[in-house]
Design a protein that fits this description.
The protein has 18 helices and 19 strands. It has an eight-stranded mixed sheet with strand order 2-3-1-4-8-7-5-6. Strand 5, helix 5 and strand 6 form a beta-alpha-beta unit.
């Protein structure tokens, strides 16, 4: 099976040297990701496209590769194709008819040909010849140039042609790792998750900074979002997840700061802390999920005052987006279910917040904060690789949660993966029942299950399953384990 990958248009207009660098990096990213599915995958750089070839014809392998390619930044679109040597138009017609004969019965169709190289016919002539032949030699309902039931795409390149079986959209952008890194302030809600996706889509290696306002459950939820984004769109580039405890800062804001300025001061303190973290990580840019006027702290005057808390560049990918557009992107990227099930931790809410913050007044209110608490929060932060998001201080719980490689028939395996993942590659285990229960529904439904049975949580890499197993064990569920196949 072969895929033809088309580059994001902005890559193609770069200078020759930059284009070569970007396509080389994209080939590397594709190879690293797709080799998880097929270790013998072949990736070729053809200047105007990238070819991805696998010897596997299995539908599940093809579906998994398709899913991976659709999430790699730098790809405009890609096509699943069959390759044939070009002999003449008669032979081409016979091949197309063999593949589409049954599908065309009772359906209207159109033939689209893209051609490059030297040939004795034009693209339009090839379309007319093949379309006319199919119309006469099949049970098709006829040709419809504008609204066909079936579109047959063919690409002719020099001495070969490719019959396009399917076309899939990519996410565009630049190859991951082609831009300088950013530290994304993530809360787990719709905005910060989509904002992080958009920086990743642009080829920016996105590290995560989380300000914990809601305890262990909040931290677990945000780690799930960050891990999902990295695994799905991060091209496996190594990034870090940093957690800062902000409860002492919140307490001071609530007891010392003018209520009208609480939201603005909280955002300023977060930027100040994130700046210190970013400098130690040698990152020169921050990113947030703020959008104009979505909440009181996000008016233009307030954002101006907030921005002055740091001298680092602060990106706001969502700044002029509507909330419904943000939710739509969350749905498309797979983060919607994470975010809509994330509890709101609005620890600082003012009845009459200012929408036109005064810079001098903000500094006056901020001076009431003991900055030693902020420095201590930065000093005591937890930074860990995105691939190892289980807290080091949970080691005692980790040791108590059992890891099972060969389940017993009486066990029940709970597939906690995102529904899209479990549909692409279903989990099947001999003699052991498997139920699908996405992570975001797990805690609300686990209490209704038979306490006499042992439940084994499963996810692809064992990270999300372990996070939930540890959390549930700490909540008193001792019949929880983790299933990690051999």
């Amino acid at each position: 099976m072969k895929f033809i990958v088309k580059l994001f248009p902005e890559i193609t207009i770069k200078s020759s040297s930059v284009r070569k660098r970007l396509t080389k990096l994209l080939c590397k990213n594709i190879g690293n990701i797709c080799s998880q599915i097929d270790e013998n995958i072949e990736v070729g750089n053809k200047w105007d496209h990238i070819s991805v070839t696998t010897e596997h014809e299995d539908d599940s392998i093809v579906a998994a590769l398709t899913d991976k390619l659709s999430c790699i930044s730098g790809i405009c679109y890609f096509m699943q194709v069959l390759r044939f040597p070009l002999l003449d138009l008669d032979e081409l017609l016979e091949t197309v008819k063999a593949h589409y004969d049954a599908a065309l019965t009772g359906k209207t169709f159109v033939v689209r040909v893209k051609r490059s190289g030297q040939h004795t016919f034009t693209s339009v002539e090839a379309e007319k010849y093949i379309g006319g032949g199919l119309n006469q030699q099949t049970q098709a309902a006829g040709v419809n140039l504008h609204h066909p039931d079936i579109t047959i795409n063919i690409e002719i390149k020099n001495e070969d042609y490719f019959l396009v079986l399917s076309r899939h959209e990519g996410i565009g952008g630049f190859p991951m790792g082609s831009q300088q890194p950013v530290l994304s302030l993530i809360s787990g809600g719709f905005d910060s998750a989509v904002s992080s996706f958009m920086t990743m889509r642009r080829g920016i290696k996105t590290h995560f900074c989380f300000f914990n306002l809601g305890g262990h459950a909040h931290e677990t939820g945000v780690k799930e979002v960050a891990y999902f984004l990295w695994e799905k769109y991060g091209a496996l580039h190594p990034v870090l997840f940093t957690t800062l405890s902000f409860q002492p800062i919140i307490e001071q804001i609530l007891t010392r700061v003018d209520p009208a300025y609480m939201g603005v001061i909280l955002k300023r303190m977060m930027l100040k802390a994130a700046t210190l973290v970013a400098r130690e990580m040698k990152i020169s840019t921050l990113s947030t999920g703020e959008a104009i006027a979505q909440v009181s702290s996000q008016t233009l005057p307030n954002l101006s005052v907030i921005d002055s808390a740091t001298d680092l560049l602060t990106l706001r990918p969502l700044i002029v987006m509507d909330k419904q557009d943000i939710i739509r992107i969350a749905r498309q990227t797979g983060t919607e279910n994470f975010s809509k099930n994330m509890p709101e931790y609005c620890a600082v809410i003012s009845k009459n917040p200012t929408i036109k913050a005064n810079y001098k007044k903000a500094l006056q209110e901020e001076s009431k904060i003991d900055f030693s608490h902020l420095e201590e929060a930065v000093k005591q932060r937890k930074t860990e690789s995105i691939t190892n998001l289980v807290n080091l201080d949970s080691a005692d719980l980790i040791s108590k949660v059992i890891i099972i490689k060969t389940p017993e028939p009486e066990d029940i395996i709970i597939d906690v993966r995102h529904p899209h993942e479990s549909e692409v590659i279903p989990l099947v285990v001999d003699k052991t029942p498997v139920i699908k229960l996405p992570f975001y529904k797990l805690e609300s439904q686990i209490g209704t299950m038979d306490t006499s049975r042992r439940y084994l949580l499963f996810c692809d890499r064992g990270v999300i399953s372990r996070l939930h197993a540890i959390h549930l064990y700490s909540e008193g569920y001792k019949n929880i384990g983790v299933y990690i196949p051999k």
